[in-house]
């Protein structure tokens, strides 16, 4: 029974999660495009000389958050920078990219610090919502999605650190992960033998399980604002 559950989480549920992610984002785009136009302007004055550059600056560096709460701004920047490195690390688990090895490194980047930063940032965002005034404007999904992120990061970081520093049983080779992840782009998705044979296979399953749940909830949470961030900043400068 457990083998069937593990396989469902590691293969069919991954397809379901990404299908829900992309389908949900597409749905949100359709809703936005079909929404009634707002009369007047949403522009912010004074307008900068180069609207696109201003939109990029505000999207990536979030100066408004810096002016209001520098601690919050620090964790936002740290989270997004670490999340970018996390995406790069997962891409490297699909196949090798010479571009990413300009600075030679062992997969993942950051020697374990990426996971630590993500866990610390997620905990900050989570506990911040227990304080006023953010508690009053929070809904259950805000806590749930942060908790899912935290659990996915905990198990993923645990796997990475244990493998990197030689904890017994976490010697799953990178090639095994690449065999598993690359199989999703073929007609024969499967879990590689190197992962299944690990005595800590359940840790991998839990990491994938919570990541799947996060991807499925993301399009229907407040975090989906990140998909529209640049467009929203550009509209403010039209």
How would you describe what is shown here?
- With 238 residues, the protein is mainly alpha-helical.
- The chain contains 11 helices and no strands.
- The protein has one domain: Fumarate Reductase Cytochrome B subunit (Up-down Bundle), CATH 1.20.950.
- Helices cover 63% and strands 0% of the residues.
- Helix 6 packs antiparallel against helix 7 and helix 7 packs antiparallel against helix 10.
- The protein starts with a helix and ends with a helix.
- The mean pLDDT is 83.
Give a quick summary of the entry.
The chain is mainly α and 238 residues long. Helix content is 63%, strand content 0%.
Spell out the key features of this protein.
238 residues; mainly alpha; Fumarate Reductase Cytochrome B subunit; 11 helices; 0% strand
Secondary structure category: mainly alpha
Mean pLDDT: 83
- The first-level CATH class is given as Mainly Alpha
Q: Helicity, in percent? A: 55-70%
Number of helices: 11
CATH superfamily: Transmembrane di-heme cytochromes, Chain C
Give helix and strand order, one letter per element, not per position.
Answer: HHHHHHHHHHH
Query: Main beta sheet: strand number and arrangement?
Result: none
Q: What characteristic shape results from the CA principal axes?
A: globular
- Ranges where pLDDT stays below 50 over 5 or more residues in a row are none
What is the CA-CA span between the terminal residues? Answer: 57 Å
Please state the CA-atom Rg, rounded to the nearest Å: 20 Å
Instruction: Please give the domain count.
Output: 1
- The second-level CATH architecture is Up-down Bundle
Count all strands and give the number.
0
Strand percentage: under 5%
CATH topology: Fumarate Reductase Cytochrome B subunit
